[in-house]
Amino acid sequence: MQTSRNLLGGRPRIGVPVRLTSSSDPDPRVAKANGLFGYIVELLREGGAEPVPLTAAGMHDGGPAAKLASLDGVVLPGGGDLAPGLYGETQSDLCYDVSHAQDELDLAVARHAIDAGVPVLGICRGHQLLNVLYGGTLVQDMEPGMVAHRVPAPAHGSGPWAWHEVTVGAGSKVAALYGSGSGAVSVKIASGHHQAVARVAGGLQVTAVAEDGTVEALEDPERWVASVQWHPEALELPAGERLAPFRAFVEVCRTRP
């Protein structure tokens, strides 16, 4: 049964966990991730939602379940690397901006949203976080290969995205976000990551891969949980292409049971 907010055609409340690292960090990737958080909030609002920034303090005031009870959806944004201990590995020196506080916040939000049946969309770090939450592992630093997933250091974090095409599987949740009713859809993506999914978690299905085999999209076939490795919010994309998947996700949240 839909909530009264949805039945009345109101703006769905979609939570987005805030980024906890300061943009003054010397690594330019941190400021870039913080800026992308702002783009996501703007696109959700433009797409018809009421974005709700989620803080660590908010998660402790009555607990995550109480905070999330008022939400219709959650977006897990990009950011620094997850602590490798979360998937049973020792941290490499190539990891950056590892924050246990950020991991705790993002995992709490994701875990309770999934348990509550709230739609969840993961983006870049959010894609990797969902795989880890479900029991999968990550590549801590990708070797250069046939597909460029980021621009070379030191430009990474301040320069242009790496761009390539992916084909998203027919009938998948991500394909629906890009306007496909039942067929596969080709998407030109803005890519900027040095980590990737290694072992895919049980309970998740791969719905898009890059030409080199990198897992680009995942979903839970039993719940509305989906994720992409790329950045649909990238400012360099045409305005309509940026907005479309967020507007579609807002509609998923508006009409959820």
Give structural notes:
By secondary structure, the chain is an alpha/beta fold. Helix content is 32%, strand content 20%. The chain is built from eight helices and eleven strands.
Question: What is the helix fraction of residues, given as a range?
Answer: 25-40%
> How large a portion of the residues is in β-strands, by DSSP E?
15-25%
Structural class: alpha/beta
CATH level-two architecture? 3-Layer(aba) Sandwich
Strand order of the largest sheet: 2-1-3-4-11-10-9-6-7
Specify the CATH homologous superfamily: Class I glutamine amidotransferase (GATase) domain
Please, how many domains?
Answer: 1
Mean pLDDT: 89
Q: What integer value in Å does the Rg equal?
A: 17 Å
State the major sheet. 9 strands, mixed
Task: Count the beta strands.
Answer: 11
Short description:
It is built from 8 helices and 11 strands.
Strands, helices and their partners?
Blueprint: H1 4-7, E1 13-17, H2 28-46, E2 50-54, H3 56-60, H4 63-68, E3 73-76, H5 100-116, E4 120-123, H6 125-133, E5 138-139, E6 162-168, H7 173-177, E7 185-191, E8 196-197, E9 205-209, E10 215-220, E11 225-228, H8 239-254
Parallel strand pairs: 1-2, 1-3, 3-4, 4-11
Antiparallel strand pairs: 5-8, 6-7, 6-9, 9-10, 10-11
Helix pairs in contact: 2-8, 5-6
